[in-house]
Amino acid sequence: MEEPATSTCMSGNFDGSMQSTIEKLIDIPVHQKIITNLVALFNYFDIYAPKMELLYKIVTVLRFFQLFGGALMASNTTVFLPGSLTYNTISIMSVFFHLIPCQYRNGIEYLALFALNTILFLFAIYLLIASSYYKKTSKVSKVTTYVLPVFMATGPFLFLPILAEFCGEILSGAISGNHPVKITEYIAVAESLVITVFYLWLLFQTFTTTLIFRSCSFKSLEGGPQNKLLLGTIIVTFICALNIHLTKGTSVAVISISVIVYAYLLPLFTGVALLSIYITKV
Are 189 and 171 in contact (CB under 8 A)? Predict the structure, then answer.
């Protein structure tokens, strides 16, 4: 049973050696080297990382809440009257997709952004160092084999929509003038934009780019649906958050855009859901 994994690893080592030789002869751009290193590392994890089917199922449920959580416009004070039973109920529900209840969120969004950005930044450095080390030595520590796969299964897919939510809320307050925005909040939004772009690039170019089935939440046979579901969740979440402190008239435009995004994602979501059920039964 060990022979296929060993053969794959040996093949990966040989390919890595060939790649190193080619890089010495050709000036390869830095971003291409990073992509190559990360792809090799993720392929290694596919073989040697622990199976995490329970974690994938949990993340799938949370991503489902995030996908449709933005449409609830949970924090929108023009939709739900603060202090009402409906507002408090939706506020509690928002923990499942935006982490912090709506009623405790105002004024601390930038702190949440700084915290999440720090976590994502540190893991980005960890990924780059681990992939570079694997490229040079063909070795990965046991701790890394556990920690990074768990992070890749959870962090980017769950944290990026939360960044979009809090950024939208801050910008909504700035546009409406209802909540004066401090310079630290603008810095937090700028950091979040950079982090989001980096991780979307990382996911689209490496993690979801594979010729074999790679286990993940919202199971799909290839990476395209994963990318579109994540990007769609981020877009809907940001648009709905941007409408939080604006007038009721803008809600029509927001809902219209959200409907278009959901209509685009529905066939993908249906196909992914059916595949998930099939794989679970098998």
Answer: yes
pTM greater than 0.70: yes
Candidates 67, 37, 66; CA nearest to 205 is 37
Among 90, 96, 70, which Cα is nearest to 255's? 70
- Integer-rounded Cα Rg, in Å, for the chain is 21
For tokens 């160092």, name the residue: 129
Residues 172/244, Cβ–Cβ less than 8 Å: yes
Angstrom distance (rounded) from CA 20 to CA 18: 5
Residues of 98-107 as b/e, b for ≥16 C-beta within 10 angstroms? bbbbbeebee
Q: Which one-letter amino acid corresponds to residue 40?
A: A
**Helical H runs in 106-222?**
109-137, 142-176, 183-202
Name the pLDDT band for 96 (thresholds 50, 70, 90): confident
- Helix (DSSP H) and strand (DSSP E) numbers for the chain: 10, 0
Taking the CB of residue 257, how many other CB atoms lie within 10 A of it? 15
Q: Where are the domains of the chain?
A: 40-280
Q: How does residue 109 score in pLDDT terms, banded at 50, 70 and 90? A: very high
Cα separations in angstroms, 222 against 200, 207, 240: 16, 11, 29
CA distance 176 to 138: 54
**Torsion angles phi and psi, residue 15, rounded to 5:** -65, -40
